[in-house]
UniProtKB/TrEMBL annotation:
This is Hemagluttinin repeat protein. Residues 132-152 are annotated as: Disordered. Residues 140-152 have a biased composition (Polar residues). Signal peptide: none annotated. It comes from the Bacteria.
Length: 212
């Protein structure tokens, strides 16, 4: 038993919730006025667009979460938690914070993870603007017990924290008020990476492998 959407599902009530005993596959549009909660015992696979105007977006999977499309929280946080793996080649944008938790996290070079973004509609379409960076800005937290790979664009108005056994930010463009990378195996790969921290860039290892 699973949920598959290839069309357009919208909701204007308090909370948009899908609770599946199988997979959740979205190749269309899921949107809501307020909070969105997607929970699955198997994979959650988004190839379309998941968006809300207020409140948080939560994804919970007993297996894998994969985002090849777009997930946008115009007024709140985005929180993804998977028991197996989080995979991303698409985009995740939040007005608030972005949190990923899984044993392994892999965001490819085409991915975008952004926190503290104002998304508005105008005559030309959709406008996205990062709020001014500060210590009180919005944060990105990527937490894994094994390896985290974040090779795309990682942008936050506050801090970016990556905690894992191993971290690979090679080829990435990572920009925030502060950046902290914590590893348990003392290994960080940052080949051809651009890391920009307005305030501080810190890590807990001397073993950083990089090339330009």
């Amino acid at each position: 038993i699973g949920v598959r959407n290839a069309g357009h599902i919208g909701a204007s009530f308090d909370t948009f919730q899908i609770d599946s005993q199988g997979r959740i596959v979205n190749t269309g549009i899921l949107n809501a006025e307020k909070a969105m909660n997607l929970t699955a015992t198997q994979d959650i696979n988004n190839q379309g667009k998941i968006e809300n105007k207020q409140g948080n977006i939560q994804l919970r999977s007993k297996a894998k979460i994969e985002n090849r499309g777009s997930i946008v929280a115009r007024g709140g946080n985005i929180d993804k938690k998977a028991d197996s793996h989080i995979q991303q080649s698409g985009e995740t944008l939040a007005k608030g914070n972005v949190n990923y938790t899984a044993p392994t996290i892999h965001a490819t070079e085409s991915s975008l993870i952004a926190a503290g973004v104002n998304v508005t509609d105008d005559a030309q379409g959709e406008t996205r603007q990062l709020e001014t960076k500060s210590a009180k800005g919005k944060s990105i937290q990527l937490t894994s017990s094994r390896k985290t790979t974040a090779q795309g664009k990682n942008i936050a108005s506050g801090g970016i924290t990556i905690s894992a056994s191993e971290v690979n930010v090679s080829q990435s463009h990572t920009s925030a008020h502060g950046i902290e990378i914590k590893t348990t195996k003392d290994q960080i790969q940052a080949n051809h990476a651009t890391l920009i921290a307005d305030n501080a860039l810190s890590n807990n290892t001397n073993n950083i492998r990089y090339s330009t």
